[in-house]
UniProtKB/TrEMBL annotation:
GO terms for molecular function: 1-phosphatidylinositol 4-kinase activity; ATP binding. It is an enzyme of class 2 (transferase). It comes from Crotalaria pallida. This is 1-phosphatidylinositol 4-kinase. Pfam families: PI3_PI4_kinase. Keywords: ATP-binding, Kinase, Nucleotide-binding, Transferase. Residues 108-404 form the PI3K/PI4K catalytic domain.
Length: 447
């Protein structure tokens, strides 16, 4: 097999600088993703890798970085050669990850399908056989048209396994979780949204009949985390309090609907045996079911673990106090513009709830319980958070109403807080600002 190599050219003052012999990548913008993304026509890419990134000297580009493949001699590769392009995602860890995958693809490495899970997922390894990345194509999500596990047939944009999250949108939520894990607090692995061209992924007959034969694949890409176990294989007594708290804080902010034991990985510690006396760290993965479009019922595996009932440390309280939900909202609007505004508002509501509750001395378990629905007989009972938001929203709509009797009747129905969930996307900007003002005041009374 022919070896492919790459070289580095770094301008210490202006970031990455290409070699003069190489072509520049000229790409269309992929800043906004819609549900017909798979229908994009094939974009012409230059056939050279011009950039390898030095970890301490990476600056965000105004255009989408391109990482196509080339030989050392600079000869053009076949137009059908696999390529990878960053659609959304930035920072040294993300760029380094994409470059590693590009090198692996140039060396002839093919992604290997993972048998677990309900959607299509693949692992990339480097030439030495070490796993380096996991990727999940958008069109292979559960229920999506090209799902390889027999759970396909629906178009992107329809309600998914969780009705508050649309088919084809779990990848952008994976990216959002990484962007919001400030300073790597919870340890979300580096994540990007990428486009693969001509990579050997799954394609069923129905999709092949309706799409171009070499259609690009939009996918999430995440650093592979070497681990010995997942949380379900050991049990909570093995895990450090800090690790559980850090994941729990992230889950509350994002209203994670699917934090089960299988998506918390137990880190390896130099192949040492795991003993109960040694607290280990957890790494959270699989955030596709975060940031729903309305207040849905979350699932927190850690809710009844003893660590969740331990008070927050001073470090954790300081981290929570410095969270800025409105700055986070702006980050998502800029970096993940295809995320629905209603999902961003859920982030704001949940972050404010966390900040107020933590400041009042509540534990992680207390907060998680207030966000989780209960049961009365065979019926679900709205969570405390849903009840609060329902009351506030009803009062806002009442104020906005022209004192019309019919309108008041409709508002009364809103205050009943149906289990279908509370949405904030139908509030105009003025109503949303009023909601937040009343919501803050009400929380002060609750806590």
């Amino acid at each position: 097999m022919r070896l492919f190599k790459m070289a580095v050219a770094i301008d210490q003052h202006h970031g990455i600088k290409p070699f003069s012999r190489s072509q520049r990548c000229k790409l269309q913008s992929f800043g906004h993703l819609d549900h017909n993304i798979l229908g994009l026509t094939h974009t012409s890419f230059s056939n050279s890798i011009e950039q390898v990134f030095e970890a301490d000297n990476i600056h965000r580009s105004f255009s989408t970085p391109c990482l196509p493949l080339t030989t050392l001699s600079g000869e053009d590769l076949s137009s059908s050669h696999p390529r990878i392009e960053i659609v959304s995602g930035s920072g040294a860890p993300v760029h380094a990850l994409v470059v590693e995958v590009a090198i692996a693809m140039a060396s002839g490495v093919h992604p290997k399908p993972l048998p677990s899970g309900l959607g299509g997922a693949y692992v990339f390894c480097n030439k030495s056989g070490t796993n380096i990345a996991v990727t999940k194509p958008v069109d292979e999500e559960p229920l999506a048209l090209n799902n390889p596990k027999g759970l396909g047939g629906q178009i992107l944009g329809q309600p998914g396994l969780k009705s508050s999250i649309r088919i084809g949108e779990t990848g952008i939520r994976e990216l959002a979780a990484y962007l919001l894990d400030h300073g790597g607090f919870a340890g979300v692995p580096p994540t990007a949204l990428v486009k693969f061209c001509h990579a050997p992924f799954f394609a069923n007959d129905d999709a092949a009949a309706t799409t171009a034969p070499q259609m690009p694949k939009l996918a999430s890409l995440q650093r592979f985390i070497g681990h010995g176990f997942d949380a379900g294989e050991l049990g909570p007594s093995f895990f450090s309090v800090a690790s559980v708290h850090q994941i729990g804080i992230l889950d509350i902010r994002l209203l994670n609907l699917d934090r089960h034991a299988g998506n918390m990985l137990v880190m390896k510690h130099n192949q040492k045996s795991y003993v109960a006396e040694v607290a280990t760290d957890l790494v959270p993965i699989d955030h596709g079911f975060c940031l729903p479009e309305w207040l849905d019922d979350p699932y927190f595996e850690w809710l009844h673990w003893p660590q969740a009932s331990t008070p927050f440390s001073e470090y954790e309280l300081e981290y929570i106090s410095h969270l800025d939900p409105f700055k986070d909202a702006d980050i998502l609007r800029a970096e993940v513009p295809s995320l629905q505004e209603s999902s961003i508002r859920v982030l704001v509501v949940c972050t404010i709830f966390l900040k107020q509750a933590a400041a009042a001395g509540l534990t992680l378990a207390d907060i998680g319980q207030m966000m989780t629905r209960g049961f009365c007989g065979a019926e679900e009972i709205p969570s405390k958070l849903e009840t609060i938001c329902s009351q506030v929203k009803a009062s806002i709509l009442l104020i906005s109403n022209d004192e019309n009797n019919n309108g008041k009747g409709e508002i009364g129905e809103e205050s009943s807080c149906e289990i279908s969930g509370i949405s904030f996307g139908d509030l105009n900007q003025g109503q949303w600002e009023s909601f937040l003002e009343i919501y803050n005041k009400l929380l002060l009374g609750v806590f």
